[in-house]
Every structure is written in C-alpha cells, then in structure tokens.
Amino acid sequence: MRNSRSDLRVPDAKADLYLIGLGIGGFDQRTVEVDHLLRGAAAVLHLTAFDPELREICSGQVEDLSGIYFCGKRAAEVYDAMAEHVMEVALANHVLGYSCFVTYGHPLFLVDTSWDLRRRTDLRVKPVAATSFVDQIMCDLEHRFDYGVQHYEANRFLRMSPRIDSRFPLIVSQVGEVGSDRIELRGRKLAWLTPLFEEVMEKYPNDRQCDLVFSAYRRDMAPKVSSATVGEIFTLASSVHVGTTLVVHGSESK
C-alpha cells in the first residue's frame, strides 16, 4: 500500500514491489515512469508476450510467468499461485532492490493477482497507472462513456443479473471467458455464449446497436470491431475470443 504522507508535495515513497501495467497497445505504450522502473528493477516478473523486449531493457532478473498461468488449473488457483510466486521472488531480491510484476493494460483493472499482492503486508506494494482497455475502446468506438456507463465482468454480470438502465451503454468485459472458471481454449462458442447473449436481449431493445471490440494489446495486432443489433447478437459469436469486450449502446450515450 502507499505510505501516508503528511506533506502532499513530497513524491510517493519508494516501494519494494511495483505493479506495472504496460498499457493496451503494445510494449511501446509503456509510460516514461514504467520504463524507468523496469530498467532499474532487481527482478521483473511478467505475464506478457514481451519477454525479449523486457530482457533487452531490464538490468535485473526477468521471468515469464506464462508457465504458471497456462497450467490448466482453475483461474482462482492460477492467480493465487502467481501472487505467491511474485511475492517469494520479491522477498528474495529485497536486499538487491525493488521488483516489478508486469501485465498488459492497467495493473489493477481485472488483474486479480495484483489485488492479492496489494493486500500483502510483507513488502511495500504500489501500482503504477497505465492505459486500460476501457480507455482504448473509447478511442476505438468514439463513444461517450463519460456521460454514464454500466460495466461488468462477463461472469459476474451473469451471476448477478443486475438491474440495467437501457438509456445508458453497457460494457461487458472478458466475454471470451464467460461460463468458465478455468484458463483454457474452448470450442462450441454458442453453447457458452447463449446465456450471456440472452441476458443482454432481455435488458435492451432488439434494435439497439452493440459492438464486439478487440483492443489490440500487442504491436503485431490490429484493433477490430464487429457490430450488430441486439436482435442479431448471435451473429457476433464467431468473433468472440479471449480479450473481447461487448458494448451495448445506450439511447442517451452520444
């Protein structure tokens, strides 16, 4: 957690473990602050496709966490295992300097491991802000979400079945992971997408536009937007994969 400061003019105290978001859009989207932290870290543990790039700029130890992430276990177990490993490495390197846990996008937005690490008291832990996928879809869609928006992670949206105000847009993130508590590739998309799509159809009129958005998180990817009306939402199923976001337009959102 950030240390309390009696004088707000003084910069934040240094941390032992930094939670780093590279931003949506690729390695080149990292901020100046993040670049500085990565270059000076004693250890950098990451869940990205940028292992070669990180090894090129980092002077300390670099470890790719994909081996832990893609182990086939339940998501909650995977996130816990990553948090334990990151904390173990950070503690081991404490005498040498600070460590960094690095992910795509924002360091806290939909990153359960980061929230777990923030609750730890073994070391001083501090997140460093970065561009999230929500920032990017505002640019991809040129849509006014700052006038009001309803946002849910896909599995939580299904479990809660929240009361929705159809005047305002709805953002449903991690559509490709709905209906599963495991980190894995799946087929038969219609089978696990049907409950989500039917929930949307109950809450919004059939003629309301909806977009399935893929915001590129690597430089070798391009953003993609597939659109349909709510009544035709099932035509979007073939475009769903990990990392996609469903946006349903509001009647008062422009």
How would you describe what is shown here?
There is one protein chain. By secondary structure, this protein is α/β, with parallel strands linked by helices. It is built from eight helices and ten strands. Helix 2 (51-57) links the parallel strand 2 (43-47) and strand 3. Helix 4 crosses helix 5 (112-119). The longest helix has 18 residues, at 75-92. The model has no long low-confidence stretch (mean pLDDT 90).
Concise account of the structure shown:
The protein is α/β, with parallel strands linked by helices. It has 8 helices and 10 strands. It has helices spanning 32-40, 51-57, 66-69, 75-92, 112-119, 133-141, 154-160, 189-203; strands at 17-21, 43-47, 61-64, 99-103, 125-128, 150-153, 170-173, 209-214, 224-229, 244-248.
Observed structural traits:
254 residues; alpha/beta; 5-stranded parallel β-sheet; 5-stranded mixed β-sheet; elongated
Total strands: the figure is: 10
Compressed to H and E, one letter per element, the order equals: EHEHEHHEHEHEHEHEEE
What structural class do the secondary elements suggest? alpha/beta
Global morphology: elongated
Instruction: Look at the structure and give the mean pLDDT.
Output: 90
Task: Assess the beta-strand content as a share of residues.
Answer: 15-25%
Q: What is the C-alpha radius of gyration, as a whole number of Å?
A: 20 Å
Please summarize the sheet with the most strands: 5 strands, parallel
| Order of the strands making up the biggest sheet | 3-2-4-1-5
- Which residues form runs of ≥5 with pLDDT under 50? none
* Percent in helix: 25-40%
Distance between the termini: 38 Å
Please work out how many helical segments DSSP would assign: 8
